[in-house]
Write a structure and sequence with these properties.
This protein is α+β, with helices and mostly antiparallel strands and 67 residues long. It has helices spanning 28-36, 45-66, and strands at residues 2-4, 8-10, 13-15, 20-21, 40-42.
Amino acid sequence: MYEIKQSLMTNGKIIEAGSIVDDKAIPKTSIQWLLDQAIIVKVDKKYKEKKLQEIAEAKKQAEAEEE
């Protein structure tokens, strides 16, 4: 799975930034280049943990600002 960092068009379809797509949504010949350009990011266990931690921290900050 990959997270799309910039909207891109592939196979006549637009994939919006922020989308999570499986490997089949992106042509195999393009994956390495898109990774090198930071247009997509491989979603693995470590990446998921990092994102969940960022969400938890953002939620804490929002709650602290409300007080």
